[in-house]
Amino acid sequence: MGEEPYLANVAKLGNNFLLVSMLEALSEAFIFTQKNGIEPQSFLDVISTFFGSPIYDNYGSIMVNEEFEPAGFKMSLGLKDTHLALEAAQEADASLPLAELAKEHFSKGVENGLEDLDWQR
Question: Which fold has domain 6-111?
Answer without folding.
Answer: N-(1-d-carboxylethyl)-l-norvaline Dehydrogenase; domain 2 (1.10.1040)
